[in-house]
Amino acid sequence: MGKLFSHQQGAPLSNMVTIIGPSGSGKSTIADAFGFIADCLDRGVEEACDMNNRGGFRQLVSQGSDGVIRFELYYRETDDAKPITYELSIALDENNRPYVMDERLSQRVGKTGWPQSFLNLHEGVGYAFEGTDGWQDEDGTVTGQGRKVDVKLADRRKLAVSTYGAMAQYDRIVDFMHFLRSWYLCYFTPDAARQMQFAAPQEHLNTTGSNLNNVAQYMYRDNPKAFAQILKEIQTKLPGIEKIEPKNMENGQMVLKFLEKGFDEPFYSQHMSDGTLKLFAYYLLLHEQSPRQLVFIEEPENGLYHQYLTELAREMRSNVGNGFSKQLFVTTHSPFFVNALAPEDVWVLSKGEDGFSGIKRAADYDMDLEISERQFREGQGRDAWRALADVRDTYGLGRCDYDLLVRQVKELQDAEPFYVALMANMAALLWEALPDINWAGFYVRRGRESDLVLGPFQGKMACIRIPLSKGVCGTAAAEDRIVRVEDVHAFPGHIACDSASQSEIVLPIHQNGEVAAVLDIDSPSLARFSAEDEAGLAKMVRQLEAAIVF
Ligand code: SME
């Protein structure tokens, strides 16, 4: 299951927690940690270890640990309630079967502020308190009115909270169960949502979204006017959909009718495209009336057109807290999704050399990024840097509209194709448009075998001549390829014109099939240039090549 360092001292999580990070950094592991607890409740710990391709206890336990899986859940029922801690440890018994070793619910109460337990079991034996008060501390001192009951579980593979949470006299355990039960792990699959659903109206969407019509029917029955309003709101968010209407069938069911622009005949949800259906399901989720305690969505971008993600994220963010869910967790790779969020809502997950994942709020990164420079050089934290470069992109710190820039190059060309004028203005254009750069300009070849000679540029004075094959520029020219360097100090033969430069990208410019010049851009930040930058700049260079007079 991977390893994750816990952060005890961190600030509390916000209502919206979005986790980004490179593949393999542990995003799905976090999602599955929630799924695992939900499965433990329903099926017991042994089955939970084997379910959902988890591969059994030995696969789940962190390598190098003491062989125990530990969970600690710290939460507050309401803003003014005393926080509750739930601790759960799972280990292997003498027959190598997973069982619950320790389980405890505690609160800090009274003057001392020490945590006191109202459910505490070790190896299936312990106590539980009835009522709403009554606790025992570590020394065995009991406080409060609730009756303490000695308990012993018949099955050590089942959670005590699922047993005692089903009995009304254990009010607080019942509340805790209610909290766990109202977690919603969302795995929408359009195929599931498309199945004909015969069941009656249902209040909540299920994990796959297969009861989408039943939920719609519930909302319709509950308050037809409010439901009509919800549909009206959603239809503005779905591409190409003019109207959504409920349609009552003779058998008492209700189906949703989608009227598409340009079509006279309506479609029913069974025939909607995957993307539209998924988007509809998310919006329906956002409009559920009784809020869930926690919603977890893994990679909402899958199957959705990227442009809709910013709007979706914005809606999720504005509805979370009091609307559909009290807290929302999302894992994503989509900059479009992250674009709509605040840095406080975004967490960067990255895997260290030791195999442990670390997590850090995007807002806590110094955007000048000087702290991790040493780590980067030493080969550690490269993933974190990459994830961070993504964050910078997503906050527009590294992003620019390359299509617009390509059109601007074309305009410059139409006005004057002579290379000095064209390159001079293109350097000025890049200098204005690209954030976080300290040099942008050209080196030109004078004759077939010759060195590169300084051309028009913006930035500090630079070296005049660069021999072919030397430095980043000479390498790009000699090998006729784009060279993108994350850390110039690690590039053998790099020519330092400005000591501030940390990363660099060089693109060859052709005439008659030969390299005639190079475009060179330097940045004072490490790993400044993304693949997106590379593609955008390559487009600009192709436009430049289309009409340039040397
Ligand atoms: N760093 C370049 C030299 C050019 S300056 O950065 C402007 C290189 O290594 O080719």
Termini gap:
59 Å
Molecular shape:
globular
Please give the oligomerization state of what you see: single chain
Number of helices: 17
**DSSP strand (E) fraction?**
15-25%
Attached small molecules: methionine sulfoxide
Mean pLDDT equals: 84
Would you kindly provide a brief summary of this structure?
With 550 residues, this protein is an alpha+beta fold. A hairpin with a 5-residue loop joins β4 and β5.
General description of the model:
There is one protein chain. The model is unreliable at 1-8 and 367-381 (pLDDT under 50). Helix content is 31%, strand content 25%. It is built from 17 helices and 24 strands. The strands form five sheets. The chain has a seven-stranded mixed sheet, with helices on both faces. A six-stranded antiparallel sheet has the order 3-4-5-6-7-10. The chain folds into three domains: 27-184, no CATH class; 185-290, no CATH class; 402-547, GAF domain (Beta-Lactamase), CATH 3.30.450.
Secondary structure blueprint with pairings:
Blueprint: E1 3-4, E2 16-20, H1 27-43, H2 45-50, H3 57-60, E3 69-75, E4 84-92, E5 98-108, E6 115-122, E7 125-129, E8 135-136, E9 142-143, E10 148-152, H4 160-164, H5 171-181, E11 183-186, H6 190-194, H7 212-222, H8 224-235, E12 241-248, E13 254-260, E14 267-268, H9 274-286, E15 294-298, H10 307-319, E16 328-331, H11 335-338, E17 346-351, E18 356-361, H12 373-377, H13 382-394, H14 402-415, H15 419-433, E19 439-445, E20 452-459, E21 465-466, H16 471-479, E22 483-485, E23 503-511, E24 514-523, H17 531-546
Parallel strand pairs: 1-18, 2-16, 2-17, 11-15, 15-16
Antiparallel strand pairs: 3-4, 4-5, 5-6, 6-7, 7-10, 8-9, 12-13, 13-14, 17-18, 19-20, 19-24, 20-21, 22-23, 23-24
Bound molecules: methionine sulfoxide.
Methionine sulfoxide (SME) is lined by residues 439, 462-463, 466, 471-474, 494-495, 497, 501, 504, 520, 522.
